[in-house]
Amino acid sequence: MQTNPPGCAPDSGRGRAILMLCHFVGMVDLVALPVWVGALVKHYGFDLEHAVMIVTAFLAGAVAASLVAAPLFNRLPRTACVVAGYGVAALAFFGASQATGFGVLVPLHLLAGAAAGMALSVTHGTIGRSANPHKLFAIVGTALGVSAVLFYATVPPAIALHGGSILFKVFAGLMALAAVAALGFPRVASRAEQAGGSGPLPRAAWWAIFGVSSMALNQALTYSMLDRVGIMRGFSQEQVNGLLVVCGLVNLLPAAIAGLLQNRLNPVRVALVAAPLQAALAVTITQSASFTQYALAASVYSAVLIFMHTFLFGLIARLDPSGRALASTPAMMMTGSAIGPALAGAVAMRAGFDGLAVLAAVVGVAATLFFSLVARRTGRVAAVPTI
Protein backbone atom coordinates (compact mmCIF):
# COMPACT_ATOMS: atom_id res chain seq x y z
CA MET A 1 0.00 0.00 0.00
CA GLN A 2 1.21 3.51 -0.78
CA THR A 3 2.79 5.25 2.19
CA ASN A 4 3.19 8.79 0.86
CA PRO A 5 2.20 11.54 3.29
CA PRO A 6 -1.15 13.24 2.63
CA GLY A 7 -1.24 16.63 0.95
CA CYS A 8 1.74 16.18 -1.38
CA ALA A 9 0.41 15.82 -4.93
CA PRO A 10 2.53 15.64 -8.11
CA ASP A 11 1.18 18.99 -9.30
CA SER A 12 1.82 20.85 -6.04
CA GLY A 13 4.86 23.08 -5.70
CA ARG A 14 6.52 20.68 -3.29
CA GLY A 15 5.66 17.68 -5.45
CA ARG A 16 7.08 19.30 -8.58
CA ALA A 17 10.30 20.23 -6.79
CA ILE A 18 10.82 16.66 -5.60
CA LEU A 19 10.02 15.22 -9.03
CA MET A 20 12.39 17.69 -10.72
CA LEU A 21 15.26 16.62 -8.48
CA CYS A 22 14.48 12.90 -8.81
CA HIS A 23 14.20 13.22 -12.60
CA PHE A 24 17.54 15.01 -12.96
CA VAL A 25 19.41 12.63 -10.68
CA GLY A 26 17.94 9.55 -12.34
CA MET A 27 18.65 10.90 -15.83
CA VAL A 28 22.21 11.92 -14.97
CA ASP A 29 23.52 9.63 -17.71
CA LEU A 30 21.81 11.80 -20.35
CA VAL A 31 23.78 14.77 -19.06
CA ALA A 32 27.06 13.16 -18.04
CA LEU A 33 27.64 10.55 -20.74
CA PRO A 34 30.47 12.26 -22.68
CA VAL A 35 32.13 13.46 -19.46
CA TRP A 36 31.75 9.98 -17.94
CA VAL A 37 33.35 8.17 -20.87
CA GLY A 38 36.04 10.84 -21.22
CA ALA A 39 37.00 10.60 -17.54
CA LEU A 40 37.30 6.82 -17.66
CA VAL A 41 39.54 7.05 -20.73
CA LYS A 42 41.71 9.99 -19.67
CA HIS A 43 41.97 9.53 -15.90
CA TYR A 44 41.57 5.76 -15.46
CA GLY A 45 43.46 4.66 -18.55
CA PHE A 46 40.71 2.50 -20.09
CA ASP A 47 40.35 2.22 -23.85
CA LEU A 48 37.05 3.29 -25.41
CA GLU A 49 35.58 -0.20 -25.40
CA HIS A 50 36.24 -0.85 -21.70
CA ALA A 51 35.22 2.66 -20.67
CA VAL A 52 31.83 2.36 -22.33
CA MET A 53 31.37 -1.14 -20.86
CA ILE A 54 31.59 0.38 -17.37
CA VAL A 55 28.98 3.03 -18.22
CA THR A 56 26.86 0.37 -19.91
CA ALA A 57 26.80 -1.61 -16.65
CA PHE A 58 25.02 1.33 -14.98
CA LEU A 59 22.57 1.67 -17.85
CA ALA A 60 21.89 -2.08 -18.04
CA GLY A 61 21.09 -2.14 -14.33
CA ALA A 62 18.67 0.75 -14.78
CA VAL A 63 16.93 -0.98 -17.69
CA ALA A 64 16.51 -4.23 -15.77
CA ALA A 65 15.08 -2.44 -12.73
CA SER A 66 12.69 -0.42 -14.89
CA LEU A 67 11.40 -3.53 -16.66
CA VAL A 68 10.65 -5.07 -13.26
CA ALA A 69 9.14 -1.94 -11.71
CA ALA A 70 6.92 -0.75 -14.59
CA PRO A 71 4.28 -3.53 -14.57
CA LEU A 72 4.20 -3.38 -10.75
CA PHE A 73 3.93 0.41 -10.59
CA ASN A 74 0.44 0.53 -9.08
CA ARG A 75 1.39 -1.92 -6.32
CA LEU A 76 4.78 -0.59 -5.25
CA PRO A 77 5.44 1.40 -2.04
CA ARG A 78 6.66 4.35 -4.04
CA THR A 79 8.28 6.47 -1.36
CA ALA A 80 10.26 3.50 -0.07
CA CYS A 81 11.35 2.57 -3.61
CA VAL A 82 12.64 6.04 -4.40
CA VAL A 83 14.35 6.65 -1.05
CA ALA A 84 15.99 3.22 -0.99
CA GLY A 85 16.85 3.34 -4.69
CA TYR A 86 18.73 6.60 -4.60
CA GLY A 87 20.23 5.77 -1.21
CA VAL A 88 21.75 2.51 -2.47
CA ALA A 89 22.94 4.24 -5.66
CA ALA A 90 24.69 6.88 -3.54
CA LEU A 91 26.57 4.20 -1.60
CA ALA A 92 27.53 2.37 -4.81
CA PHE A 93 28.91 5.50 -6.43
CA PHE A 94 30.84 6.42 -3.30
CA GLY A 95 32.37 2.94 -3.47
CA ALA A 96 33.22 3.57 -7.14
CA SER A 97 35.04 6.77 -6.17
CA GLN A 98 37.41 4.64 -4.08
CA ALA A 99 38.06 2.04 -6.83
CA THR A 100 40.20 2.00 -9.97
CA GLY A 101 39.92 -1.54 -11.33
CA PHE A 102 37.59 -2.63 -14.10
CA GLY A 103 36.48 -5.69 -12.10
CA VAL A 104 35.30 -3.49 -9.22
CA LEU A 105 33.86 -0.56 -11.15
CA VAL A 106 31.58 -2.73 -13.30
CA PRO A 107 29.57 -4.39 -10.46
CA LEU A 108 29.35 -1.10 -8.55
CA HIS A 109 27.97 0.63 -11.65
CA LEU A 110 25.53 -2.24 -12.17
CA LEU A 111 24.26 -1.90 -8.59
CA ALA A 112 24.00 1.88 -8.85
CA GLY A 113 22.07 1.60 -12.11
CA ALA A 114 19.60 -0.97 -10.78
CA ALA A 115 18.90 1.10 -7.67
CA ALA A 116 18.58 4.42 -9.52
CA GLY A 117 16.49 2.78 -12.26
CA MET A 118 13.94 1.59 -9.72
CA ALA A 119 13.66 5.09 -8.26
CA LEU A 120 13.43 6.73 -11.68
CA SER A 121 10.71 4.34 -12.87
CA VAL A 122 8.54 5.31 -9.91
CA THR A 123 9.30 8.99 -10.58
CA HIS A 124 8.23 8.79 -14.23
CA GLY A 125 5.15 6.71 -13.45
CA THR A 126 4.09 9.34 -10.93
CA ILE A 127 4.59 12.13 -13.47
CA GLY A 128 2.46 10.12 -15.89
CA ARG A 129 -0.38 10.00 -13.35
CA SER A 130 -0.38 13.77 -12.79
CA ALA A 131 -3.14 16.07 -14.04
CA ASN A 132 -1.15 17.10 -17.14
CA PRO A 133 1.75 14.72 -17.83
CA HIS A 134 2.97 16.66 -20.89
CA LYS A 135 3.22 19.91 -18.92
CA LEU A 136 4.83 18.34 -15.86
CA PHE A 137 7.35 16.42 -17.98
CA ALA A 138 8.18 19.72 -19.73
CA ILE A 139 8.80 21.29 -16.32
CA VAL A 140 11.10 18.52 -15.10
CA GLY A 141 12.81 18.49 -18.51
CA THR A 142 13.54 22.20 -18.20
CA ALA A 143 14.93 21.59 -14.72
CA LEU A 144 17.17 18.92 -16.25
CA GLY A 145 18.46 21.52 -18.70
CA VAL A 146 19.22 24.01 -15.91
CA SER A 147 21.02 21.32 -13.94
CA ALA A 148 23.00 20.30 -17.04
CA VAL A 149 24.38 23.83 -17.41
CA LEU A 150 25.61 23.77 -13.80
CA PHE A 151 27.02 20.28 -14.27
CA TYR A 152 28.98 21.14 -17.42
CA ALA A 153 30.24 24.40 -15.95
CA THR A 154 31.58 22.82 -12.75
CA VAL A 155 32.24 19.09 -13.06
CA PRO A 156 34.63 18.86 -16.08
CA PRO A 157 36.98 21.53 -14.59
CA ALA A 158 36.81 19.75 -11.23
CA ILE A 159 37.73 16.45 -12.90
CA ALA A 160 40.67 18.11 -14.66
CA LEU A 161 41.86 19.49 -11.32
CA HIS A 162 41.16 16.59 -8.94
CA GLY A 163 40.99 13.49 -11.14
CA GLY A 164 38.26 11.14 -12.35
CA SER A 165 37.11 10.01 -8.90
CA ILE A 166 35.48 13.40 -8.34
CA LEU A 167 32.84 12.47 -10.93
CA PHE A 168 31.68 9.51 -8.84
CA LYS A 169 31.68 11.62 -5.68
CA VAL A 170 29.42 14.12 -7.45
CA PHE A 171 27.10 11.28 -8.50
CA ALA A 172 27.05 9.95 -4.92
CA GLY A 173 26.18 13.38 -3.53
CA LEU A 174 23.36 13.88 -6.03
CA MET A 175 21.89 10.45 -5.33
CA ALA A 176 22.05 11.06 -1.56
CA LEU A 177 20.32 14.45 -1.95
CA ALA A 178 17.52 12.85 -3.98
CA ALA A 179 17.10 10.09 -1.39
CA VAL A 180 16.60 12.64 1.38
CA ALA A 181 14.21 14.77 -0.69
CA ALA A 182 12.19 11.68 -1.64
CA LEU A 183 11.13 11.18 1.98
CA GLY A 184 8.28 13.52 0.98
CA PHE A 185 7.68 11.88 -2.41
CA PRO A 186 4.30 12.91 -3.93
CA ARG A 187 1.34 10.55 -3.88
CA VAL A 188 -1.20 9.72 -6.59
CA ALA A 189 -4.93 10.19 -5.89
CA SER A 190 -6.57 6.98 -4.70
CA ARG A 191 -9.28 7.00 -7.38
CA ALA A 192 -6.61 7.02 -10.05
CA GLU A 193 -4.87 4.22 -8.18
CA GLN A 194 -7.75 1.91 -9.04
CA ALA A 195 -8.13 2.91 -12.71
CA GLY A 196 -6.48 1.28 -15.67
CA GLY A 197 -4.00 -0.72 -13.63
CA SER A 198 -4.25 -3.96 -15.59
CA GLY A 199 -4.76 -5.24 -19.10
CA PRO A 200 -2.50 -5.12 -22.16
CA LEU A 201 -0.95 -1.88 -23.38
CA PRO A 202 -2.33 -0.47 -26.65
CA ARG A 203 -0.34 -1.41 -29.75
CA ALA A 204 0.30 2.27 -30.53
CA ALA A 205 1.92 2.69 -27.11
CA TRP A 206 4.31 -0.18 -27.88
CA TRP A 207 5.33 1.35 -31.24
CA ALA A 208 5.86 4.70 -29.51
CA ILE A 209 8.04 2.99 -26.89
CA PHE A 210 10.13 1.34 -29.63
CA GLY A 211 10.51 4.66 -31.44
CA VAL A 212 11.65 6.50 -28.33
CA SER A 213 14.08 3.67 -27.56
CA SER A 214 15.53 3.90 -31.07
CA MET A 215 16.10 7.63 -30.75
CA ALA A 216 17.66 7.08 -27.32
CA LEU A 217 20.01 4.58 -28.97
CA ASN A 218 21.03 7.15 -31.57
CA GLN A 219 21.50 9.73 -28.83
CA ALA A 220 23.85 7.42 -26.94
CA LEU A 221 25.73 6.28 -30.05
CA THR A 222 26.82 9.80 -30.90
CA TYR A 223 26.73 11.67 -27.60
CA SER A 224 28.88 9.11 -25.77
CA MET A 225 31.55 9.71 -28.43
CA LEU A 226 31.17 13.50 -28.54
CA ASP A 227 34.24 14.17 -26.38
CA ARG A 228 36.38 11.59 -28.21
CA VAL A 229 35.24 12.71 -31.68
CA GLY A 230 36.25 16.29 -30.89
CA ILE A 231 39.64 15.36 -29.46
CA MET A 232 40.46 12.95 -32.29
CA ARG A 233 39.48 15.59 -34.86
CA GLY A 234 42.19 17.82 -33.36
CA PHE A 235 39.98 20.13 -31.28
CA SER A 236 41.26 21.05 -27.82
CA GLN A 237 39.79 19.75 -24.56
CA GLU A 238 38.94 23.35 -23.66
CA GLN A 239 36.93 23.71 -26.89
CA VAL A 240 35.06 20.47 -26.21
CA ASN A 241 34.35 21.43 -22.58
CA GLY A 242 33.10 24.82 -23.73
CA LEU A 243 30.83 23.11 -26.25
CA LEU A 244 29.33 20.97 -23.47
CA VAL A 245 28.41 24.15 -21.58
CA VAL A 246 26.76 25.49 -24.75
CA CYS A 247 24.86 22.19 -25.11
CA GLY A 248 23.57 22.65 -21.58
CA LEU A 249 22.42 26.20 -22.31
CA VAL A 250 20.63 25.11 -25.50
CA ASN A 251 18.97 22.26 -23.61
CA LEU A 252 17.25 24.78 -21.35
CA LEU A 253 14.87 25.54 -24.20
CA PRO A 254 13.36 22.43 -25.85
CA ALA A 255 11.28 21.09 -22.94
CA ALA A 256 9.94 24.55 -22.11
CA ILE A 257 9.06 25.22 -25.75
CA ALA A 258 7.42 21.78 -26.00
CA GLY A 259 5.30 22.64 -22.97
CA LEU A 260 4.14 25.89 -24.57
CA LEU A 261 3.30 24.13 -27.84
CA GLN A 262 1.40 21.26 -26.25
CA ASN A 263 -1.89 22.09 -27.97
CA ARG A 264 -0.37 23.38 -31.22
CA LEU A 265 1.69 20.46 -32.54
CA ASN A 266 0.76 16.85 -33.11
CA PRO A 267 3.09 14.57 -31.14
CA VAL A 268 3.33 11.95 -33.89
CA ARG A 269 4.24 14.56 -36.49
CA VAL A 270 6.89 15.94 -34.12
CA ALA A 271 8.39 12.46 -33.82
CA LEU A 272 8.32 11.88 -37.59
CA VAL A 273 10.38 15.05 -38.10
CA ALA A 274 12.68 14.53 -35.09
CA ALA A 275 13.89 11.02 -35.94
CA PRO A 276 15.48 11.79 -39.34
CA LEU A 277 16.70 15.18 -38.10
CA GLN A 278 18.52 13.51 -35.21
CA ALA A 279 20.18 11.05 -37.60
CA ALA A 280 21.31 13.88 -39.91
CA LEU A 281 22.86 15.75 -36.98
CA ALA A 282 24.66 12.56 -35.85
CA VAL A 283 26.19 12.16 -39.31
CA THR A 284 27.31 15.80 -39.25
CA ILE A 285 28.94 15.43 -35.83
CA THR A 286 30.88 12.32 -36.77
CA GLN A 287 31.96 13.56 -40.23
CA SER A 288 32.79 17.24 -39.65
CA ALA A 289 36.44 18.25 -39.83
CA SER A 290 35.42 21.86 -39.10
CA PHE A 291 34.90 22.78 -35.45
CA THR A 292 32.09 25.16 -36.45
CA GLN A 293 30.05 22.42 -38.14
CA TYR A 294 30.80 19.95 -35.34
CA ALA A 295 29.81 22.47 -32.67
CA LEU A 296 26.62 23.64 -34.38
CA ALA A 297 25.34 20.09 -34.84
CA ALA A 298 26.38 19.00 -31.35
CA SER A 299 24.83 22.03 -29.65
CA VAL A 300 21.29 21.12 -30.78
CA TYR A 301 21.69 17.34 -30.92
CA SER A 302 20.26 16.51 -27.48
CA ALA A 303 17.60 19.21 -27.85
CA VAL A 304 15.91 17.23 -30.63
CA LEU A 305 15.39 14.20 -28.38
CA ILE A 306 14.27 16.31 -25.40
CA PHE A 307 11.69 18.19 -27.49
CA MET A 308 10.34 15.03 -29.10
CA HIS A 309 10.25 13.04 -25.87
CA THR A 310 8.12 15.66 -24.12
CA PHE A 311 5.42 15.23 -26.78
CA LEU A 312 5.69 11.44 -26.81
CA PHE A 313 5.50 11.33 -23.00
CA GLY A 314 2.16 13.12 -23.16
CA LEU A 315 0.94 10.89 -25.99
CA ILE A 316 1.83 7.66 -24.16
CA ALA A 317 0.12 9.00 -21.01
CA ARG A 318 -3.09 9.35 -23.03
CA LEU A 319 -2.71 5.92 -24.62
CA ASP A 320 -2.09 4.28 -21.22
CA PRO A 321 -3.61 6.25 -18.27
CA SER A 322 -2.46 3.60 -15.75
CA GLY A 323 1.08 5.01 -15.66
CA ARG A 324 2.65 1.60 -16.31
CA ALA A 325 3.98 2.47 -19.76
CA LEU A 326 5.53 5.70 -18.51
CA ALA A 327 7.04 3.89 -15.54
CA SER A 328 9.05 2.07 -18.20
CA THR A 329 10.52 5.38 -19.43
CA PRO A 330 13.96 4.55 -17.98
CA ALA A 331 13.90 1.31 -19.96
CA MET A 332 12.85 3.21 -23.10
CA MET A 333 15.66 5.72 -22.73
CA MET A 334 18.35 3.53 -21.23
CA THR A 335 17.95 0.40 -23.34
CA GLY A 336 19.28 2.47 -26.19
CA SER A 337 21.72 4.19 -23.88
CA ALA A 338 22.95 0.86 -22.51
CA ILE A 339 23.59 -0.55 -25.96
CA GLY A 340 24.78 2.72 -27.48
CA PRO A 341 28.08 3.45 -25.71
CA ALA A 342 29.38 -0.12 -25.98
CA LEU A 343 28.25 -0.39 -29.59
CA ALA A 344 29.71 3.04 -30.41
CA GLY A 345 33.03 2.14 -28.82
CA ALA A 346 33.25 -1.15 -30.70
CA VAL A 347 32.27 0.42 -34.04
CA ALA A 348 34.62 3.39 -33.58
CA MET A 349 37.58 1.11 -32.86
CA ARG A 350 36.87 -1.17 -35.85
CA ALA A 351 35.22 1.02 -38.50
CA GLY A 352 36.06 4.54 -37.35
CA PHE A 353 33.65 7.46 -37.19
CA ASP A 354 32.44 6.68 -40.72
CA GLY A 355 30.98 3.45 -39.31
CA LEU A 356 29.23 5.44 -36.58
CA ALA A 357 27.66 7.71 -39.20
CA VAL A 358 26.26 4.75 -41.14
CA LEU A 359 24.92 3.15 -37.97
CA ALA A 360 23.23 6.40 -36.87
CA ALA A 361 21.50 6.67 -40.26
CA VAL A 362 20.21 3.08 -40.04
CA VAL A 363 18.84 3.59 -36.52
CA GLY A 364 17.23 6.86 -37.63
CA VAL A 365 15.36 5.01 -40.38
CA ALA A 366 14.15 2.42 -37.85
CA ALA A 367 12.88 5.13 -35.48
CA THR A 368 11.02 6.83 -38.33
CA LEU A 369 9.33 3.54 -39.28
CA PHE A 370 8.20 2.95 -35.68
CA PHE A 371 6.66 6.42 -35.50
CA SER A 372 4.96 5.80 -38.84
CA LEU A 373 3.27 2.79 -37.25
CA VAL A 374 2.15 5.02 -34.36
CA ALA A 375 0.65 7.41 -36.91
CA ARG A 376 -1.19 4.56 -38.59
CA ARG A 377 -2.58 3.34 -35.25
CA THR A 378 -3.65 6.73 -33.93
CA GLY A 379 -4.84 8.11 -37.28
CA ARG A 380 -4.58 11.70 -36.08
CA VAL A 381 -1.47 13.06 -37.76
CA ALA A 382 -3.41 15.40 -40.03
CA ALA A 383 -6.06 16.31 -37.50
CA VAL A 384 -4.02 18.58 -35.23
CA PRO A 385 -3.27 22.18 -36.20
CA THR A 386 0.34 23.20 -36.74
CA ILE A 387 2.09 26.53 -36.58
Descriptive report:
With about 375 residues, this protein is mainly α. It has a single domain (about 15-380), classed as MFS general substrate transporter like domains (Growth Hormone, Chain: A, Up-down Bundle), CATH 1.20.1250.20. The chain has helices spanning about 15-25, 30-40, 50-70, 80-95, 100-130, 135-160, 165-180, 190-195, 205-225, 225-230, 235-250, 255-260, 265-285, 290-320, 325, 330-380. α2 runs antiparallel to α3, α6 (about 135-160) packs antiparallel against α14 and α12 crosses α14 (about 290-320). The radius of gyration is 19 Å and the shape is globular. Mean pLDDT is about 85; it is low at about 1-5, about 190-195 and about 380-385.
Topology diagram in text:
Layout: H1 13-26, H2 28-42, H3 48-69, H4 78-97, H5 102-128, H6 133-162, H7 165-181, H8 190-193, H9 203-223, H10 226-232, H11 237-250, H12 254-260, H13 267-287, H14 291-319, H15 324-327, H16 329-378
Helix pairs in contact: 1-5, 1-6, 1-7, 2-3, 2-6, 3-5, 3-16, 4-5, 4-7, 6-7, 6-11, 6-12, 6-14, 9-13, 9-14, 9-16, 10-11, 11-14, 12-14, 13-14, 13-16
Shape: globular
The string of secondary-structure elements, in order, is HHHHHHHHHHHHHHHH
Average pLDDT works out at 85
Distance between the termini: 45 Å
CATH first level: which class?
Mainly Alpha
Number of self-contained structural domains? 1
Number of helices: 16
Protein structure class? mainly alpha
- CATH fold-level name: Growth Hormone, Chain: A
Radius of gyration: 19 Å
| Low confidence ranges | 1-7, 190-194, 380-387
